[in-house]
Amino acid sequence: MAKKNSKKKHQAHSRLKTKLEAALKKQKSQTVQSMSAPDVQEYKNHQSSDASRQRRNLPMAGRTIVVTSGKGGVGKTTTAVNIAVALAKLAKNKKVAIVDCDTGLRSTDMILGLENRIVYTLVDVVRGVCELKKALVHDKRLDGLYLLPTAQTAQKEDVNEAQMKKLSNELKKDFDFVIFDCPAGIEAGFRNASAGAEEALVVTTPDVAPVRAADRATGLLENQGKKRIHLIINRLRPKLMRKGDMLGVADVLGVLNMSLIGLVPEDDAVVKSSNDGVPLTLTDDSLAATAYMNIARRILGEEVPFLDIENMDQGFMDKLKNFFVRK
User: Fold this and answer.
1) What letter does residue 57 receive in the DSSP assignment?
2) Distance (Å, rounded) from C-alpha 53 to C-alpha 182?
3) Three-state SS at 204
4) Is the separation of the CB atoms in 182 and 68 below 8 Å?
5) Could you count the other beta carbons within 10 Å of the beta carbon of residue 255?
6) Containing domain of residue 316, as a range?
7) Quick one: pLDDT at residue 17?
8) What CATH number did the domain enclosing 274 receive?
9) pLDDT profile of the chain (327 residues), mean per 10
10) Pairing state of beta strands 137-138 and 145-148?
11) How far apart are CA 249 and CA 273, in angstroms?
12) How far is CA 283 from the centre of its chain?
């Protein structure tokens, strides 16, 4: 029976991977390749430098990071907000700005619980209606956290890449970290959000369509010359992974071939957090909050082990069954 179950699990994984590989075949030219040895060394030097600066209490150079995916509904905004909050908590005496780039929709302010404090927006800044400092909303729960909201009544085409690059350079003068929350898709909103960023965090869920979208987005980021691109796999569900009904971490990495920086489990606390306007990392008392805090620590240069998500909710009988399967 154990061998039969193991065979079914293997077959399920094979079917999922085959389906994913077929979907990616048409965009083979965009498939992410392994980072070259010089790029890997550059990233290590960058992290080492940041960690060294923290130890010596020296100012860090402003880092600009876009959080993207190419696909809607994978948790980009939740990820961007929680990482920004985590960085503001961990990097003492540092300033973090999160920029909502989803012009025409806007949701970052709601997840942060700051929707009632918005006066000016990113669009007002690039149009010269107001100064940047007037549009920034300070989150009073954390000394170093600020939001630059965007407009709901404008269109993504009302902002261009040159304006976003200029805005990014201005923000880097005053902030240690600038997080750009990218809208779904790979059109104008994507180009604007990524234009001023030097680094990228690509968010995907372990499903065929989001992984394919992540692959496409990563190819475009590489074409922009970005070298520090890292993957976050979101909404992992342990039971489905063990049954072979969901792509596992190794399956996703086998296709995307990217540097992994975060694994985030499915967590009911995310929904309540978003509705309440209280980011998970403010309280740090859920599995997803722990995962987001770990991502922030890795961004800061710390070496943090990944959560063993596949086995985190495994009961005694499941563990016993897997023991005999391995035998």
Assistant:
1) T
2) 29
3) strand
4) yes
5) 21
6) 2-326
7) 61
8) 3.40.50.300
9) 57 62 48 40 48 46 93 96 98 95 96 97 97 97 97 93 97 97 95 97 96 96 96 96 91 93 96 95 91 97 93 57 44
10) antiparallel
11) 25
12) 19
